[in-house]
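step 4 of 6: structure.
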Amino acid sequence: MNVVLWICATILSISAFLALIRLVKGPSILERVIATDVLLLIVSAALCIEMTVNRHTNNLMFVVLACLVGFVGSVTVSRYVTDRRNA
Amino acid sequence: MSPQQRLSDAKNESGQRQRATLRQELPLLVWMVLVWGALWQDFSPGNLVFGLVLSLLVVNLFQLPPVILSGRFNVRLAVLFAFKFLWDVVLASFEVMYLAVFRGPKTKSAVITVSLRTESDLLVTAVGHVLTLVPGSFVVEVDRRSSTLYLHVLNVNDQAGVDKARADVLDIEARLIRMMGSKEELAALNAETKTAARAADAGEEGTP
Amino acid sequence: MLDTMIDIVAGTFMILGCLMSLAAGIGMLRFPDLLSRMHAATKPQVLGLFLLLSALGLELRSWAVIPVLLLAWIVQLLTAPVSAHMVGRAGYRTRHLKRVTLVADELALVVEEAANRENTAHGQKPGSNRTDFID
């Protein structure tokens, strides 16, 4: 399990780094939103892995909440972006 | 969407707000009670009853326009659909992975129009959800009056790809109609497939 | 014996799930425009979370957690397409797309038609340019 943990941690760090690059570069706010979304999902993946390795379910609510927060965030921002152009 | 139609969701002809009947809300209530039980990881009767009380409170405080169910649900097809869906999710994920790694910036895509057969909001939503997760496409725009979806499809290189993507979407819709569409839609779909089969037969006879 | 096998399966699932996150990261960086990047952000993540949650279920080996795991996945299944649609729609309406990467754009024709119809129908009215589809 320890080996798996290290592999997963490495992969997740790389993907978080890639998402961060897009977050910094992202030409528009929408790109930044989806980059944040990906980052949030990477965090929830990390939570899942931590739970699997230590065999508990304390963080499961945070995984569900991360999904919901990402959803509310991206919907709000995209509505705002569309409305500003529409007005 | 026209303003009239948006109004008609919430109000009936006399201008009163439409209230969902208890029967219409039953699936929602059952779902909410199950969510409550799952969140507590406790399906004991006391907890479920408390969940039901809370759900009733929520449903009555935050009223939504009722979701019209067709009244048909084929459990066997639903299970089949779930497995096919899971398999398709796996395929789609690996496809996107492959494209991201090997094709990258050269990936071509297309925005296509698909007019669905169904007129039910629920089915249009379900089709939109499923096809966003499955065959490399997602919904850009919806025209509710004509049940038309405008999709962005990844990895389309020519007109043949566009046609294939459209056929895929219509296939998903056909499977969803068989699973939970209304009787009229099912009949229309069966008639359509029969004509298509007959046309195919005729075509084969014509070109030996 | 059985325990080790379950551990191996769970480990494989975990690594695959992480690879899906990596696919999302690579896709975010390498795809040419916003709409293609949306695909990278939604599709692999759904499978990734599914694999990680099943790994968790396999390791915990208790029936009581299965509904929560399922719930977490269903919540993602329901929210991911909606947010993808909202962001994609905003992206299309504000023209955050590269025409070069599109093989066909059948929505553009509809947008044009709608704009024309709108202009001829109430050309004099103020605010007549407020169509559903914004250019």
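step 5 of 6: annotate
 - The two ends of chain A are 55 Å apart (CA to CA).
 - The first helix of chain A runs from residue 2 to 25.
step 6 of 6: archive
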